Amino acid sequence: MQRDALFDLLALSPAAVCVVTSNRRLARSLTAEFDQYQTDRSRRVWETPQILPFAAFVASLYDSAQHDPNLAGVRTPLTRVQERALWEAVIGDSELGLLSSTAAAALAADAWTLSHQWNIASRVRRYTSVADTRVFVSWADEYQRRAAAAGATDLARLPDVVRDYVDSNAIAAPQRVVLAGFDETTVQQQRLFDALVARGSLCERFEPAQHDAKPQRATCRDARDENEKVADWAAARLAADRHARIGIVVPDLMSRRRSLVAALDSALVPDRLLAPASARPYTVSLGGALSDVAVVAFLLRSIRLTLVRVEFEEASAVLRSPYFSGATHERDARELVDAQLRRRCQRSVDFERVFEAAQASARDSGVEVAQLLAGLRTLNDWRRQHATRSRRPSEWASAFAQVLQLISAFSAGGDRVLDSAEYQALARWQDLLAEFAALDRTVGRLAAAAAVGKLERIARETIFQPEGGTPPVQVLGVLEANALTFDHLWIMGLTADAWPPPSKPNPLLPIELQRAAGMPGAGAAAELQRARRQLQRLLQSAPEVIVSHATVDADRKLAPSPLIASFEQWEAPARAARLIDAMAAVALMSSHDAVAPPWRPLMPLRGGAAVVQNQAACPFRAFAVHRLNARAIESPH
Question: What pLDDT does 101 receive?
Fold first, then answer.
């Protein structure tokens, strides 16, 4: 089914059609395109169509079973946070002495999900002669037992449970299902789709527009040069058409995200350093960790400082944070207090020591930091109430929520207004606390240090991407680009080492089963075929397609992927203007000031031989140290 036929069908009978996509980005893209389709036809009101990623589609069917009064014994599904906590508890209670139960829990949860997606879960226990598989089977048995005792199922088994309900006619099947972006379906997905067809649902495939592009290959010196060429190319295409749909696909997007964003900023928004609030004309599909967002990092640091011993730098960051109540009015005074604190504190500190030192530093420096001390006093009262008791996760979540109201500069009546990204991050923080509170189902009472550690881990594993409209440039991973179409497309990082991707089988599952099921990463031959299909699909998704690769990585030479080696060479466009270019073209004012402040003879010139030594090494340093009395900020001893 082509795009226009699909949108005509959705406009005619939206309730009768459910579009199921392979990922969230495709669902958002089709929804936005359908809205534009309706707007182009001068329609002002229309019914929102059902366009759902696969996981949300399964959850909607299971939700109908949960709310059916005729169905008994329908279990409540665990959230991902609850699942991970349950795996950690199972592994932590096992007799194995592991260095990190958290890392083992992540690996076991991945193996559990893969074994159900590819329908090998029932066969894994036949391979218990392998030590790793034997350990996983014992963990999985205990995990199932505890989940059943909690009256729950998990997300990995949810499609199979829904399929059983569909087969038994316990829930209603949708009349018509359109599958979008499923170039490859797992066994679990295909069995569910087959069950829907057997129940009378009409299942069709969405076929995105295909272009007969002649791809070109860009040869770059290294990864940095590749980032710069991509940024220049995107700037040139935007200059030609501000409404063009431009895609940048990066196989290893997570590792290259930071450097690529810096290159795009310098070429697409060269004045961003002067106007940080300016909107970027691009979006990156993989967001960063929620714990790295400034406002959330402040809240996590405040909680950690109050309950456990931390490095002095963390305590200093909390006291000087612009999110701490009163920071706007007391900024300079707090800097002076921080300088005094460094003389009184050790490298690692607890809250009580910081509070006492802050009071003494404020008194000795003679500065007014009433709001800072009031905030610390409030936190101290909160600490006395919560630090020494074990509590359930829901009780800790309620206590953590109080921190925001007690000391934040953006709570009711605060002196700071959040921007859009900060507001969205704060909303996601509230959702995170709700997820933490739901751990009551799988976790018992927690001490303060354990509660803080678990909250931080969840925040680190939570991906946050603020919404900011639909800019013309999209930076995507390979899977996120599935079934999307563009006017211009660049595919980065296609070296022989990176494409096809190296095989990475899950170490807890038998390699024989993984290869027999055709699981991703199970073998080199399967990865080669998968890489061929994905690349061919991408090459047909835009009229202009550029592929690129680096030739050097540090002291190691790189070759292009054999899948792109035959493509003709691409000529790079002119370099996009950067901020430094605009600055270099401006005539700068200059003045000659060679007169130093007068030296008062009554003031002893300290330093001895150091005066001559510093003067010989650097006259400016000697001037700053001995005439201006400049001193480097102290570090805690």
Answer: 78
